[in-house]
Each structure stands twice: as structure tokens, then as C-alpha cells.
């Protein structure tokens, strides 16, 4: 047999061992590099993967318990989503009070999130489990530069700051800055982040004065809440 | 739209962060993947944890699906199998240090029953046919590696042969398997 033929045969077996998980140490590292760099090897690897996967044809499906689905949702899409949504049921009362107090505007005008010319505003409530901190956030598309913040309950600890974070899907939290010391105020939203708002979760963490020095949350996350459409 | 195309479309939408598509994919595929976790791990609680991790991985990696050239179910099953095998290996390592008898008992309790074996007999993929062309213990070694995460050392111990002999055996078997699969 020619050297090239041997080479192909070696690769065929190597790819099978690779898919089965039989390679270790330096052999495994070499095979991984080959998978990255060599299209022929990649094709062999894919073929074996398809073939060995057929070994699972005989495995009967078993419906997993509902708690698995709930745990996944919790991990991916924000803790205790249902609980948060239930708490948001408090909003009509809070909103009326807030409107009366003039703490935020609800104006439907240009909505940057959707293609329709007129769209709804957005809001979120970030609340600590024990109610020690409640932060209400409203976003009015007609006033797109900033979020309106209202903090009916809670404050930063002495010498500390409350920092607001935007979490879009699985991306790392992006800081929106430190919350104003006053109970009502505004937090600027960079233009690039505005389209993400509608699908995001907002969170507040406890940080050193002036905000997280690292660009990522460093202290405890005090509360989080999904952004909802008004 | 065929079922596979549907699943492919779900994965594509998940890559764009579509939660509804993620829910639909879970509904369509979680029973199969849970079955695989149960088979590999033989422990219900651990299989539930594994399934959780697997769908978290699916959510994170959906964007990489298109480039690997696998069919959508193969891609999902490979994520599930590889994760379950990793867990099983970690557990074995922990057991060999701590000697956890509970886990061993749990494994014995939940070994696949006659029902699962009946399903096995009714479904004959090409690889099943080709494995029957190998000597039974060689075929068993291939299955052991795929479905139980056996290493060369595990297999050598089970068949009571030196490590290098095991390697040579299995590599030859894999070559013969390939010849059969490409026939």
C-alpha cells in the first residue's frame, strides 16, 4: 500500500477513535487541531459521528419531568421568571402613583425596537426578593437617550453604589452606569444598546463607589427583572 | 417541511436568540435526549442535571450548528452523548477514589429493561448490521466506548488483555467497520 493510502487509513481510524472519545493527551490535542485545519479529516470525523449516532436509535425516548424545563428557563432567561412577572402585576397601581407624581412619562411615539412607526414604551421592575430594593425603569421611545429611573425603596449602602446592568440573551452584562442618588432620575442609554432593550433583562448590583472597576458586576446582584412592553 | 428540516429551522432561530424556537426544540427533542442521558448515566437525578446542561449548551452553541456539517439530530445527540459521557467519567473517577456504593446500586437498578431491548431489536441501523459482522466482544468494545465512555484502559481491563493489544484489536475492528459501512 502507498504512503498516502496508509495515511488515509490512519486518519479513518483516528477519526473513529476521536469520535468515540478514546484519544487522550497529546493524541487528542493533535486530532483536535486536525479537525480545525483539515477538511478531509473533518469529513471523516462527521461521517463517523453520523454512524455512531445511529447506535442511539435503539434508545427509547423518555419524557423528562417538567422541573427540568423550568430549571433551564430559569438559568437561561432570568431567575424565577414567573415570580418576577407576578410581581409586575403590581405595576398598574405603581404606575398610576408614579404618573400622578410625574416620575415618568408614558408616551407612545417612535419605537426603535419595531418596524411599526408607532410602538409601545418599555418598562422593567427590578426588585430584591425581600422588597428591600425596588427600582422601576421606564423607557420612552420618544425620549430615547435615557431610561427614567424611579426607586421607591432601597438605597446603596454607605460608600457603595447601585449599578444598573443590561443583560441581552446570553451576552455578558453591559453596564448602564450607576443609579442616581436621588430616588428619581435618568440613566443614559448608548444608542447601540437601545435595540437590545426590548428583549433584555435589567439587573442591579452592589458595587464600589463610582461603579464596578472591572466592567463586569463585582458585588451581589440585588435584583433583576425582564423588560416588558407597556 | 420534514421533521429534520423543522428542527434545523428551530436551531437557526435559536441562534438568533428566539426563545419560542428554543421551547419548540425542547418539546420536539428532549425525550430522545433524556433517554440517552438515562442510558449513559443510569441514574435519574444525574440524567436530569445532564439534560439541563445539554440544553444550556444548545442555546449557547446554536450559532455554530451550521458549520459542522452534521444533520440536526446528530448534532443534538452528539452534544447529549458527549456531555453524559463526560459526567460518567467524572463520576467513575470520583468513585474510584471514594468508592460510592450508592451510585453503583443505582446503576444496577436502572439498567435498560426488556422494553428498551425490544425497541433495540426492531431498529436496525446500518451500523448495527455492521457491528454484527465483528466478533461479539469487539462489537461490545465499540458500543462500550460510544455508550458507556469506556477508555482503552477500561476496555483492556474488561477483556483482560494488555492495553496495546486492546488498541490493536479495536483499531482493526474500526477499520473493518468502515469497510462494511462504505460497502
Automatic annotation (TrEMBL), chain A:
<dbReference type="InterPro" id="IPR051474">
    <property type="entry name" value="Anti-sigma-K/W_factor"/>
</dbReference>
<dbReference type="InterPro" id="IPR018764">
    <property type="entry name" value="RskA_C"/>
</dbReference>
<dbReference type="GO" id="GO:0006417">
    <property type="term" value="P:regulation of translation"/>
</dbReference>
<dbReference type="GO" id="GO:0016989">
    <property type="term" value="F:sigma factor antagonist activity"/>
</dbReference>
<feature type="domain" description="Anti-sigma K factor RskA C-terminal">
    <location>
        <begin position="95"/>
        <end position="221"/>
    </location>
</feature>
<feature type="region of interest" description="Disordered">
    <location>
        <begin position="206"/>
        <end position="230"/>
    </location>
</feature>
<protein>
    <recommendedName>
        <fullName>Anti-sigma K factor RskA C-terminal domain-containing protein</fullName>
    </recommendedName>
</protein>
<dbReference type="GO" id="GO:0005886">
    <property type="term" value="C:plasma membrane"/>
</dbReference>
<dbReference type="Pfam" id="PF10099">
    <property type="entry name" value="RskA_C"/>
</dbReference>
Automatic annotation (TrEMBL), chain B:
<dbReference type="GO" id="GO:0016987">
    <property type="term" value="F:sigma factor activity"/>
</dbReference>
<dbReference type="InterPro" id="IPR039425">
    <property type="entry name" value="RNA_pol_sigma-70-like"/>
</dbReference>
<protein>
    <submittedName>
        <fullName>RNA polymerase sigma-70 factor</fullName>
    </submittedName>
</protein>
<keyword id="KW-0731">Sigma factor</keyword>
<dbReference type="InterPro" id="IPR013249">
    <property type="entry name" value="RNA_pol_sigma70_r4_t2"/>
</dbReference>
<dbReference type="Pfam" id="PF08281">
    <property type="entry name" value="Sigma70_r4_2"/>
</dbReference>
<keyword id="KW-0805">Transcription regulation</keyword>
<comment type="similarity">
    <text>Belongs to the sigma-70 factor family. ECF subfamily.</text>
</comment>
<keyword id="KW-0804">Transcription</keyword>
<dbReference type="InterPro" id="IPR013324">
    <property type="entry name" value="RNA_pol_sigma_r3/r4-like"/>
</dbReference>
<dbReference type="InterPro" id="IPR014284">
    <property type="entry name" value="RNA_pol_sigma-70_dom"/>
</dbReference>
<feature type="domain" description="RNA polymerase sigma factor 70 region 4 type 2">
    <location>
        <begin position="125"/>
        <end position="177"/>
    </location>
</feature>
<dbReference type="InterPro" id="IPR007627">
    <property type="entry name" value="RNA_pol_sigma70_r2"/>
</dbReference>
<dbReference type="InterPro" id="IPR036388">
    <property type="entry name" value="WH-like_DNA-bd_sf"/>
</dbReference>
<dbReference type="GO" id="GO:0003677">
    <property type="term" value="F:DNA binding"/>
</dbReference>
<dbReference type="GO" id="GO:0006352">
    <property type="term" value="P:DNA-templated transcription initiation"/>
</dbReference>
<dbReference type="InterPro" id="IPR013325">
    <property type="entry name" value="RNA_pol_sigma_r2"/>
</dbReference>
<feature type="domain" description="RNA polymerase sigma-70 region 2">
    <location>
        <begin position="25"/>
        <end position="93"/>
    </location>
</feature>
<dbReference type="Pfam" id="PF04542">
    <property type="entry name" value="Sigma70_r2"/>
</dbReference>
Amino acid at each position: 500500500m502507498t504512503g498516502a493510502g496508509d495515511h488515509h487509513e490512519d486518519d479513518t481510524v483516528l477519526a473513529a477513535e476521536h469520535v468515540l472519545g478514546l484519544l487522550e493527551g497529546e493524541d487528542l490535542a493533535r486530532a483536535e487541531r486536525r479537525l480545525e485545519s483539515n477538511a478531509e479529516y473533518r469529513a471523516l470525523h462527521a461521517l463517523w459521528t453520523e454512524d455512531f449516532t445511529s447506535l442511539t436509535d435503539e434508545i427509547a425516548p423518555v419524557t423528562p419531568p417538567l422541573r427540568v424545563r423550568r430549571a433551564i428557563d430559569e438559568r437561561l432567561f432570568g431567575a424565577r421568571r414567573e415570580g418576577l412577572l407576578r410581581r409586575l402585576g403590581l405595576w398598574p397601581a405603581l404606575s398610576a402613583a408614579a404618573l400622578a407624581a410625574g416620575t415618568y412619562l408614558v408616551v407612545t411615539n417612535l419605537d426603535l425596537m419595531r418596524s411599526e412607526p408607532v410602538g409601545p414604551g418599555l418598562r422593567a421592575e427590578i426588585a430584591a426578593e425581600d422588597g428591600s430594593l425596588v427600582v422601576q425603569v421606564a423607557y420612552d421611545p420618544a425620549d430615547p437617550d435615557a431610561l427614567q429611573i424611579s426607586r421607591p425603596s432601597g438605597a446603596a449602602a454607605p460608600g457603595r453604589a447601585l449599578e444598573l446592568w443590561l443583560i441581552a440573551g446570553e451576552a455578558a452584562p453591559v453596564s448602564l452606569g450607576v443609579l442616581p442618588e436621588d430616588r428619581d432620575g435618568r440613566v443614559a442609554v448608548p444608542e447601540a444598546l437601545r435595540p437590545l432593550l426590548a428583549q433584555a433583562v435589567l439587573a442591579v448590583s452592589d458595587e464600589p463607589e463610582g461603579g464596578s472597576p472591572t466592567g463586569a458586576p463585582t458585588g451581589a446582584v440585588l435584583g433583576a427583572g425582564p423588560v416588558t412592553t407597556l | 417541511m420534514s421533521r429534520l428540516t423543522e428542527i434545523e429551522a428551530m436551531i437557526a432561530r435559536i441562534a438568533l436568540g428566539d426563545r419560542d424556537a428554543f421551547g419548540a426544540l425542547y418539546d420536539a427533542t428532549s425525550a430522545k435526549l433524556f433517554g440517552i442521558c438515562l442510558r449513559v448515566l443510569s441514574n435519574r437525578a444525574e440524567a436530569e442535571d445532564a439534560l439541563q446542561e445539554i440544553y444550556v449548551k444548545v442555546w449557547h452553541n446554536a450559532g455554530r450548528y451550521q458549520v459542522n456539517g452534521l444533520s440536526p439530530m446528530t448534532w443534538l445527540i452528539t452534544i447529549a452523548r458527549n456531555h453524559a459521557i463526560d459526567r460518567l467519567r467524572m463520576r467513575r473517577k470520583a468513585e474510584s477514589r471514594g468508592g460510592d456504593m450508592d451510585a453503583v446500586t443505582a446503576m444496577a437498578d436502572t439498567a435498560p429493561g426488556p422494553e428498551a431491548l425490544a425497541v433495540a431489536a426492531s431498529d436496525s441501523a446500518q451500523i448495527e448490521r455492521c457491528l454484527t459482522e465483528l466478533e461479539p466482544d469487539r462489537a461490545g468494545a465499540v458500543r462500550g466506548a460510544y455508550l458507556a465512555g469506556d477508555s482503552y484502559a477500561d476496555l483492556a481491563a474488561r477483556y483482560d488483555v494488555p492495553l496495546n493489544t486492546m488498541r490493536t484489536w479495536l483499531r482493526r475492528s474500526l477499520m473493518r467497520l468502515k469497510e462494511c459501512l462504505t460497502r
